[in-house]
Amino acid sequence: MTEQLASVRYVVDDVPAALDFYTTHLGFTVRMSAAPAFADVVRGPLRLLLSGPASSGARATPADAAAAGRNRIHLVVPDLDAEITRLSQEGLTFRGDVVAGPGGRQILLADPADNLVELFESAR
């Protein structure tokens, strides 16, 4: 049986910077890299396709939809406070404060191209 992954494409302006961000700070591993045009990284069942300006994925994106949007990948973490501390010590900054609701707590950070990443801790 073939490995089942959910794939998301993020259009980025600097593939090496995005590759470093996701592998160094968020635990993704490289499946394939054709930097500076494209990279394919994975974390668990999530396959993230990082498409630079020269990639076919980015070239297929209409100009009016080229900016990073409100969509985001959602990464579950066991201890949100510990992740915030770790990533802050690594020099990353967050977009806003922790938001809590009945399902858990979350905070957003942005990758080097301003694509959003949600770190989420489920309510216990």
From TrEMBL:
CDD domains per the UniProt record, alphabetical:
VOC
User: What's the short name of a Pfam family annotated to this entry?
Assistant: Glyoxalase
Q: Which residues form the VOC domain?
A: 4-122
Q: What is this protein called?
A: VOC domain-containing protein
Query: Could you read off the lineage of the organism from its UniProt record?
Result: Bacteria, Bacillati, Actinomycetota, Actinomycetes, Pseudonocardiales
